[in-house]
Design a protein that fits this description.
3 domains, single chain, about 55% helix, alpha+beta, Alpha-Beta Plaits, 9 helices, SH3 type barrels, 10 strands
Length: about 260
């Protein structure tokens, strides 16, 4: 009996020592991983790297380091690696089924790196969300909306969705519409609008802005106005042109469409 107790005590001491060592390795490992990731982010090669690739690589390195840490802890606990490999192989199918969505997101992240439909810092619209790309990880892409909301979209969803990239091209076209009363001289209205566009320094001369009568009803004339500008100037041109054209038409005495009210009998 005494011999059995001694063996049990020895076993508990050994197991306890392994658990304490594994816990210590886990804590120290996490600290080292954070330190390595911080140091890696300060390397010149990382700084020179494209922001999109840098974000993806940082995510990949983080996961790789944690996998190494997990394998080290399992080894310290005395679990034979052959048994671990055999267990992982036998459970591979089940894990693949359970992580089907995650694997799809991982594949999507890799495809995003290959085809590059967008980069970090660009404004996109996809899967019912719109915002500036803040981060692209192995599994998710993070968007920051203009009103400061953070949206996380699975990469698998992005790869199967229509992605509208508003920042990929240097020049953008601003589409505007203006109306006036049906009896106004449309040539005069067109000249007034063209004059406003010519006076805006942010509107490009090449391609030339487009102004034309596009429709008419019994009450109104409708004009399509399409100036071109550099991407960063889009909203300045959009709101500035809307206000400037409205003010110019009003100062020139151009009447707005008159709405006819039908009195019910």
């Amino acid at each position: 009996m005494e011999q059995t107790l001694q063996q049990l005590q020895s076993l508990l001491v050994t197991a306890g020592g392994k658990l304490l060592l594994a816990l210590a390795v886990f804590i120290i490992g996490r600290i080292l991983i954070k330190s390595i990731l911080t140091s890696a982010g300060k390397l010149d090669i990382m700084k020179k790297m494209d922001p999109t690739v840098r974000s993806f690589m940082q995510s990949f390195i983080r996961i790789l380091l944690y996998v190494i840490l997990l394998v080290s802890i399992v080894s310290i606990l005395g679990v034979p690696m052959t048994s671990v490999v055999a267990l992982m192989a036998s459970a591979g199918v089940a894990v693949a089924m359970a992580l089907q969505g995650s694997l799809s997101n991982l594949a999507g992240g890799i495809m995003l790196m290959i085809f590059r439909p967008f980069n970090v810092g660009e404004f996109i619209s996809a899967s019912g969300a719109a915002g500036t790309v803040s981060q692209i990880t192995l599994f998710y892409t993070v968007l920051i909306t203009p009103d400061g909301r953070k949206i996380t979209i699975p990469n698998g969803t992005l790869m199967n969705a229509n992605v509208e990239n508003f920042s990929s091209e240097k020049v953008r076209r601003v589409d505007l519409k203006f109306t006036c009363d049906r009896h106004e001289d449309f040539n005069r209205v067109q000249e007034i609008i063209s004059g406003v566009l010519a006076g805006n320094e942010k509107i490009l001369k090449d391609p030339a802005p487009f102004v034309s009568l596009s429709g008419a009803t019994n009450e109104a004339l409708e004009f399509d106005v399409r100036p071109y500008c550099l991407g960063p100037d889009y909203w300045d041109v959009y709101y500035g042109t809307t206000r400037a054209v409205s003010d110019a038409l009003a100062q020139a005495g151009i009447s707005t469409p008159k709405t006819r009210f039908v009195q019910e009998k």
